[in-house]
Amino acid sequence: MFYHNWRCLLFYEDNLQTFRLPFPLLKVEYYSYGSNQKIKEVVFLVDKNKVEQAIRLLLEGIGEDTQREGLIETPKRIAKMCEEIYGGLGYEADEHLLKQFQVENNEMVLEKDITFYSMCEHHLMPFYGKAHLAYIPDGKVTGLSKLARTVEVYARRPQIQERMTVQIADALERVLKPKGIMVMLEAEHTCMTMRGIKKPGSRTVTTVTRGAFTDLEMQKLFLQMVKDS
Ligand SMILES: [Zn+2]
User: Fold this and answer.
1) Domain with 63 in it: what CATH number?
2) Neighbouring residues of the ion ligand 1, judged by CB less than 5 Å
3) Which of 30, 129, 158, 200 is the most buried (most CB within 10 A)?
Protein backbone atom coordinates (compact mmCIF):
# COMPACT_ATOMS: atom_id res chain seq x y z
CA MET A 1 0.00 0.00 0.00
CA PHE A 2 1.29 3.43 -0.86
CA TYR A 3 -0.39 5.74 1.55
CA HIS A 4 1.74 8.60 0.34
CA ASN A 5 0.52 7.94 -3.17
CA TRP A 6 -3.24 8.24 -3.35
CA ARG A 7 -3.35 7.33 -6.97
CA CYS A 8 -1.73 3.96 -6.29
CA LEU A 9 -3.78 3.37 -3.19
CA LEU A 10 -7.00 3.86 -5.10
CA PHE A 11 -5.76 1.79 -7.98
CA TYR A 12 -5.46 -1.32 -5.86
CA GLU A 13 -8.83 -1.09 -4.18
CA ASP A 14 -12.20 -2.25 -5.47
CA ASN A 15 -14.47 -0.14 -3.38
CA LEU A 16 -14.14 3.58 -3.76
CA GLN A 17 -16.57 4.24 -0.95
CA THR A 18 -14.15 3.00 1.67
CA PHE A 19 -12.04 6.10 1.08
CA ARG A 20 -12.16 9.63 2.07
CA LEU A 21 -10.21 11.42 -0.59
CA PRO A 22 -7.64 14.02 0.38
CA PHE A 23 -8.68 16.41 -2.36
CA PRO A 24 -12.21 17.25 -3.38
CA LEU A 25 -11.40 17.78 -7.03
CA LEU A 26 -11.06 14.48 -8.74
CA LYS A 27 -11.75 12.92 -12.04
CA VAL A 28 -12.00 9.17 -11.60
CA GLU A 29 -11.62 6.87 -14.57
CA TYR A 30 -12.87 3.31 -14.32
CA TYR A 31 -12.35 0.14 -16.20
CA SER A 32 -14.57 -2.91 -15.90
CA TYR A 33 -13.20 -6.09 -14.37
CA GLY A 34 -15.78 -8.85 -14.55
CA SER A 35 -18.81 -7.59 -12.71
CA ASN A 36 -16.70 -5.11 -10.77
CA GLN A 37 -15.52 -1.72 -11.76
CA LYS A 38 -11.95 -0.94 -10.91
CA ILE A 39 -10.36 2.42 -10.80
CA LYS A 40 -7.92 3.06 -13.58
CA GLU A 41 -6.82 6.53 -12.79
CA VAL A 42 -7.62 9.37 -10.43
CA VAL A 43 -6.70 12.79 -11.73
CA PHE A 44 -6.49 15.82 -9.51
CA LEU A 45 -8.23 18.67 -11.21
CA VAL A 46 -7.89 22.41 -10.95
CA ASP A 47 -11.11 24.27 -10.12
CA LYS A 48 -10.88 26.51 -13.15
CA ASN A 49 -13.87 28.67 -12.22
CA LYS A 50 -12.29 29.57 -8.93
CA VAL A 51 -8.94 30.38 -10.54
CA GLU A 52 -10.61 32.54 -13.17
CA GLN A 53 -12.50 34.50 -10.50
CA ALA A 54 -9.31 34.96 -8.53
CA ILE A 55 -7.37 36.25 -11.53
CA ARG A 56 -10.16 38.67 -12.40
CA LEU A 57 -10.08 39.97 -8.82
CA LEU A 58 -6.30 40.25 -8.88
CA LEU A 59 -6.42 42.31 -12.07
CA GLU A 60 -9.13 44.53 -10.59
CA GLY A 61 -7.09 44.80 -7.43
CA ILE A 62 -4.07 46.22 -9.22
CA GLY A 63 -6.31 48.68 -11.06
CA GLU A 64 -6.54 46.99 -14.44
CA ASP A 65 -9.46 46.90 -16.82
CA THR A 66 -10.37 43.22 -17.03
CA GLN A 67 -12.48 43.85 -20.11
CA ARG A 68 -9.76 45.23 -22.33
CA GLU A 69 -8.77 43.09 -25.26
CA GLY A 70 -5.40 41.86 -24.00
CA LEU A 71 -6.77 40.76 -20.64
CA ILE A 72 -10.19 39.41 -21.43
CA GLU A 73 -8.95 35.83 -21.97
CA THR A 74 -6.22 36.01 -19.34
CA PRO A 75 -8.19 34.42 -16.46
CA LYS A 76 -9.10 31.49 -18.69
CA ARG A 77 -5.52 31.11 -19.94
CA ILE A 78 -4.10 31.09 -16.43
CA ALA A 79 -6.69 28.58 -15.19
CA LYS A 80 -5.68 26.23 -18.00
CA MET A 81 -1.99 26.82 -17.33
CA CYS A 82 -2.48 25.89 -13.67
CA GLU A 83 -3.29 22.32 -14.65
CA GLU A 84 0.19 22.01 -16.04
CA ILE A 85 2.33 24.02 -13.64
CA TYR A 86 0.58 22.66 -10.54
CA GLY A 87 -0.03 19.23 -12.03
CA GLY A 88 2.27 17.48 -9.54
CA LEU A 89 0.15 18.48 -6.57
CA GLY A 90 -1.21 15.44 -4.75
CA TYR A 91 1.19 13.06 -6.45
CA GLU A 92 4.36 11.27 -5.44
CA ALA A 93 7.04 10.06 -7.82
CA ASP A 94 6.84 6.47 -6.60
CA GLU A 95 4.97 5.05 -9.55
CA HIS A 96 7.69 6.30 -11.91
CA LEU A 97 10.53 4.99 -9.77
CA LEU A 98 8.90 1.57 -9.51
CA LYS A 99 10.18 0.85 -13.04
CA GLN A 100 13.35 -0.93 -11.96
CA PHE A 101 16.06 -3.18 -13.32
CA GLN A 102 18.45 -5.51 -11.52
CA VAL A 103 22.16 -4.65 -11.71
CA GLU A 104 25.34 -6.56 -10.88
CA ASN A 105 27.66 -3.70 -10.07
CA ASN A 106 26.54 -1.03 -7.68
CA GLU A 107 28.41 2.00 -9.00
CA MET A 108 27.17 5.55 -8.72
CA VAL A 109 24.37 6.61 -11.06
CA LEU A 110 24.28 10.34 -11.75
CA GLU A 111 21.69 12.19 -13.79
CA LYS A 112 22.74 15.81 -14.01
CA ASP A 113 21.45 19.05 -15.51
CA ILE A 114 17.79 18.12 -15.32
CA THR A 115 16.07 21.42 -16.09
CA PHE A 116 13.07 22.22 -13.91
CA TYR A 117 10.55 25.03 -13.43
CA SER A 118 8.67 25.45 -10.19
CA MET A 119 6.64 28.07 -8.34
CA CYS A 120 7.80 29.73 -5.15
CA GLU A 121 4.93 29.27 -2.73
CA HIS A 122 5.66 32.54 -0.92
CA HIS A 123 5.24 34.78 -3.98
CA LEU A 124 3.79 32.50 -6.68
CA MET A 125 6.67 33.47 -8.92
CA PRO A 126 8.80 30.99 -10.84
CA PHE A 127 12.06 29.57 -9.69
CA TYR A 128 13.94 27.46 -12.19
CA GLY A 129 17.25 25.79 -12.71
CA LYS A 130 18.98 22.43 -12.75
CA ALA A 131 18.67 19.33 -10.63
CA HIS A 132 21.46 16.78 -10.19
CA LEU A 133 20.52 13.39 -8.75
CA ALA A 134 22.92 10.64 -7.76
CA TYR A 135 22.49 7.34 -6.00
CA ILE A 136 24.47 4.22 -5.31
CA PRO A 137 22.25 1.26 -6.16
CA ASP A 138 21.73 -1.71 -3.92
CA GLY A 139 21.05 -4.28 -6.64
CA LYS A 140 18.46 -2.26 -8.56
CA VAL A 141 18.32 0.86 -10.68
CA THR A 142 15.48 2.82 -12.17
CA GLY A 143 15.17 4.14 -15.73
CA LEU A 144 17.11 7.36 -16.30
CA SER A 145 14.06 9.20 -17.58
CA LYS A 146 12.32 8.32 -14.32
CA LEU A 147 14.76 10.53 -12.43
CA ALA A 148 13.71 13.47 -14.58
CA ARG A 149 10.05 12.54 -14.01
CA THR A 150 10.68 12.53 -10.27
CA VAL A 151 12.03 16.07 -10.41
CA GLU A 152 9.01 17.15 -12.44
CA VAL A 153 6.46 15.73 -10.00
CA TYR A 154 7.89 17.76 -7.11
CA ALA A 155 8.47 20.90 -9.19
CA ARG A 156 4.87 21.17 -10.36
CA ARG A 157 3.27 22.56 -7.26
CA PRO A 158 3.62 25.59 -4.99
CA GLN A 159 7.04 24.80 -3.62
CA ILE A 160 10.17 25.90 -1.82
CA GLN A 161 13.51 24.71 -3.10
CA GLU A 162 14.63 23.25 0.22
CA ARG A 163 11.55 21.01 0.53
CA MET A 164 11.70 19.99 -3.11
CA THR A 165 15.28 18.74 -2.60
CA VAL A 166 14.19 16.64 0.38
CA GLN A 167 11.11 15.27 -1.39
CA ILE A 168 13.22 14.03 -4.30
CA ALA A 169 15.67 12.33 -1.92
CA ASP A 170 12.79 10.82 0.09
CA ALA A 171 11.21 9.34 -3.03
CA LEU A 172 14.52 7.79 -4.12
CA GLU A 173 15.07 6.39 -0.65
CA ARG A 174 11.54 5.03 -0.30
CA VAL A 175 11.33 3.25 -3.64
CA LEU A 176 14.91 2.36 -4.62
CA LYS A 177 16.40 1.90 -1.15
CA PRO A 178 19.89 2.68 -2.46
CA LYS A 179 23.12 2.69 -0.46
CA GLY A 180 23.49 6.43 -0.87
CA ILE A 181 21.71 9.46 -2.29
CA MET A 182 22.80 12.96 -3.18
CA VAL A 183 20.43 15.55 -4.60
CA MET A 184 21.51 19.04 -5.56
CA LEU A 185 19.30 21.80 -6.91
CA GLU A 186 20.57 25.09 -8.33
CA ALA A 187 17.92 27.66 -9.14
CA GLU A 188 17.25 31.29 -9.85
CA HIS A 189 14.30 32.66 -7.92
CA THR A 190 12.48 35.38 -9.80
CA CYS A 191 11.00 36.62 -6.52
CA MET A 192 14.60 37.55 -5.63
CA THR A 193 15.84 38.74 -9.00
CA MET A 194 12.77 40.72 -10.16
CA ARG A 195 11.76 42.25 -6.88
CA GLY A 196 13.03 42.64 -3.31
CA ILE A 197 16.80 42.54 -3.19
CA LYS A 198 17.08 42.28 -7.02
CA LYS A 199 20.21 40.28 -7.57
CA PRO A 200 19.93 39.03 -11.15
CA GLY A 201 21.82 35.85 -11.85
CA SER A 202 22.17 34.85 -8.22
CA ARG A 203 21.48 31.18 -7.66
CA THR A 204 20.27 29.27 -4.66
CA VAL A 205 21.94 25.88 -4.14
CA THR A 206 20.44 23.19 -1.93
CA THR A 207 21.71 19.68 -1.26
CA VAL A 208 20.58 16.58 0.55
CA THR A 209 22.93 13.70 1.26
CA ARG A 210 22.02 10.26 2.56
CA GLY A 211 23.92 7.07 3.37
CA ALA A 212 27.22 6.72 1.49
CA PHE A 213 27.04 10.35 0.35
CA THR A 214 27.40 11.67 3.87
CA ASP A 215 31.08 10.87 3.24
CA LEU A 216 33.02 13.99 2.17
CA GLU A 217 35.02 12.15 -0.50
CA MET A 218 31.80 10.97 -2.12
CA GLN A 219 30.42 14.49 -2.10
CA LYS A 220 33.60 15.74 -3.78
CA LEU A 221 33.26 13.07 -6.44
CA PHE A 222 29.64 14.08 -7.02
CA LEU A 223 30.53 17.77 -7.36
CA GLN A 224 33.37 16.95 -9.73
CA MET A 225 31.11 14.84 -11.93
CA VAL A 226 28.43 17.55 -11.94
CA LYS A 227 30.98 20.19 -12.99
CA ASP A 228 32.62 18.10 -15.74
CA SER A 229 30.82 18.63 -18.98
ZN1 LIG B 1 9.56 33.75 -3.28
Assistant:
1) 1.10.286.10
2) 120, 122-123, 191
3) 129
